[in-house]
Write a structure and sequence with these properties.
binds zinc ion; four-stranded antiparallel sheet; globular; 10 strands; six-stranded antiparallel sheet; 34% strand; mainly beta
């Protein structure tokens, strides 16, 4: 159970992750990038191992607060910096975008907030030279809830450069 990992992790390294029930489901809460990274690296039954986690940092101003848009097919994500309003695509997300440039929907926390800190988890292929899967984790800046919001498969190479495009 991933919830138990967090209870153990919290005891082992003093991480700020907590688990609470929200609408009958166990949800993880955190306060820092380290918490979000640990959340992305939890083992999920049937899921791939997340080998690398990178924090989302605005490529223009260094800001770390975003709203996050997702295209119609639910693959890929684009983040808008709340500091400078610059938009950047996460990894290869621009490939999935419709030509109109609009996001189909914006990520929203169950608490109603749409402002987040983000981190991208990368699962690498066995060769360590290519990315297999990308997971976008967001931490709500209002209530601290952490969730996987979007994930998508990478089926080409070379693709290790995507690790630098969180
Ligand atoms: Zn910015
Ligand atoms: Zn929230």
């Amino acid at each position: 159970m991933w919830q138990d990992q967090f209870r153990e992790l919290g005891q082992a390294v003093g991480a700020g992750i907590g688990v609470s029930k929200v609408d009958g489901q166990d949800r993880a809460f955190g306060a820092t990038f380290e918490d979000l990274a640990a959340f992305l690296q939890r083992s999920v039954p049937g899921g791939y191992t997340v080998d690398v986690v990178r924090e989302c940092v605005c490529r223009s101003c260094g800001g770390k607060a975003f709203e996050v848009g997702v295209p119609a097919d639910g693959q890929g994500a684009r983040r808008t910096c709340l500091g400078c309003r610059e938009q950047h695509y996460i990894a290869d997300s621009e490939e999935y975008w419709e030509d109109d440039g609009l996001a189909d929907y914006f990520c929203g926390c169950p608490c109603g907030n749409e402002e987040f800190a983000g981190a991208v988890g990368y699962s690498l292929r066995e060769d360590g030279e290519n990315v297999r899967w990308i997971y976008l984790g967001l931490r709500c800046l209002a209530c601290g809830m952490m969730r996987d919001y979007v994930d998508w498969k990478i089926n080409y190479g070379p693709s290790l450069h995507l690790v630098d495009q969180a």
